[in-house]
Each structure stands twice: as structure tokens, then as C-alpha cells.
Amino acid sequence: MASSTATTPPAPGLGEFLGMFNNIATVAFFVMLWADRQGHIDVVDVEYKKTSFCVTEETDGAIHSYKLCFYVDTAIAAFLLLMAASGRKSANIYGAAISVFSHGVFHMSQYVFGWPPLPSHIDVIIGPFFTLCMLLGFGYGNTVGNTAILIAMVAVLEAVRMMFVPIHYTFAYINGWIYAVATIAGVSIGRKANPMVMLFFTMAAIEPFLEATMCTEIKAYGGHAVFDTLIALGVAATAIVESADTDGKRKQS
């Protein structure tokens, strides 16, 4: 009689616990904004209530937060493309570069066309473009699901935003689905969460609480650009680690 041995799944590590914390934090942030608008608490900055972002204006030589987001995201995307050009020709690298750059494009569109909100004829282009690029960066349509699933996700996420999400919840909604789809992608392909990489995303999950409640203080450091930098570094670090793992497996085979 043949015996069978059950494979015990590995226990969650620090990276997985940080991932769970990050998703809980995005929900808690949405609840905080809702509770504040309902009058149950009074902690959200007046400016943040109007725009969903904390923005440093172009006064006293400061760089506008939306422009700074674009500069940071473009620089990190360019760095990733240089890595790819130097030999790391990985879909992870290209996907990360596309998603980071699209994030910067979204914020530059806010600066150029005005916010809140974007003009409707701009929003119907920039919104789906941003969502598509972010999903591509997480591997949707390639390593996760197929093209049909990718298109369906873009359609649903954008339809919900445009029809049901008030402008003052825009960031909370987008941030929530970004963390959720990133988690789903990681689980579906068996990605091991790197604790050092996850720290960038954990800091980015905490930053919105500070941005919403301490806008004046955050402005001194670039306003919303602080969040953008953390997210961009997290996406880039994830792609670099995964690319290194892929290159290592190729050399072993």
C-alpha cells in the first residue's frame, strides 16, 4: 500500500504579516476619512478633505507636489529601464517601469489640468491608462490571468470609481485596490514577500494617515510626493528582487 505524505505549507513570515497589515491599513484609512466626514471624529486636515491630497504649492522656491511626484516617478522608471537595457531583460522590470511612470503621469495631469477633479474628457483617458499600467506592473495579463481578465479589471475598477466614488475618497479608493490587487497577484503566483521590500509598502500604507491629519507638516517634505516616492521605491525594489531571482534560476538551468 503506497503511503502519501502531505506537504505542509510554510508558516507566514514577516513579509506576509506586513502585507496583511498594509491591506488592513488601507481599509482603516478609508474608514477614518468616512468617520471624519460623518462628524464622528475631527482629525482630517481641511485641505485634505477638499482634494484627497496634501499639496505643496510653488511658493518660496518649492516644487509643486504633483510636479515632484512626476519627477520622482520618471527618474525611478528611467532607472529601471536602464537596468533592463544593461542586461536584466525581465517583464518584471518593464512592468514596474510602466506602472511607476503612469503614476507620475497621473499626478502631472493633476497639475496641468487642475484638481479636483480632472476635466471629464481628460479623466476618461488618464484614469483607465493609470489603472491599466498599474495592473500590468503587478503582472496582470501576463503572469497573472490573461488579457481578457486584465481588460475586465480595468473596466470594473474605473466604472466603480467614476460612478460611485466621491472625489474626497478618490485616493483612498485607488490606494485600497492597488494594495488588494498586488496581494492577490502575489498569492496567485506564489510570490514570497520580501520583508525589506515590504517595508517600503508598509511606510506607504502609514503615510496617508500622516498626510491627511498633518498636512502642514508633510508639506515641508514635499506633500503627497512622500507617498509617491515610497510606492515607487517599493515597486522598483520588488521588480529588482524578482528579476535577480529569475536571472539566478536561468543561470542554474
Describe this structure in words.
The protein is mainly α. Helices cover 72% and strands 0% of the residues. It is built from ten helices and no strands. It has helices at residues 14-37, 46-51, 65-85, 91-113, 120-137, 147-164, 170-188, 195-213, 215-219, 225-252. The longest helix is centred in the last third of the chain and has 28 residues, at 225-252. The model has no long low-confidence stretch (mean pLDDT 90).
The tally of helices reads: 10
Largest sheet: none
Beta strand count: 0
Beta-strand portion reads: under 5%
Helix content: over 70%
From the alpha-carbon coordinates, what is the Rg to the nearest angstrom? Answer: 19 Å
Mean pLDDT across residues: 90
The low-confidence parts are none
Terminal CA distance reads: 36 Å
SSE class: mainly alpha
Q: What is the string of SSEs from the N terminus onward?
A: HHHHHHHHHH
Q: Name the shape in a single word.
A: globular
Short recap of the structure:
The chain has 253 residues and is mostly helical. The chain has helices spanning 14-37, 46-51, 65-85, 91-113, 120-137, 147-164, 170-188, 195-213, 215-219, 225-252.
Q: Could you list some keywords that capture this structure?
A:
253 residues; mainly alpha; 10 helices
Write the layout of secondary structure elements.
Elements: H1 14-37, H2 46-51, H3 65-85, H4 91-113, H5 120-137, H6 147-164, H7 170-188, H8 195-213, H9 215-219, H10 225-252
Helix pairs in contact: 1-7, 1-8, 3-4, 3-10, 4-5, 4-10, 5-6, 8-10
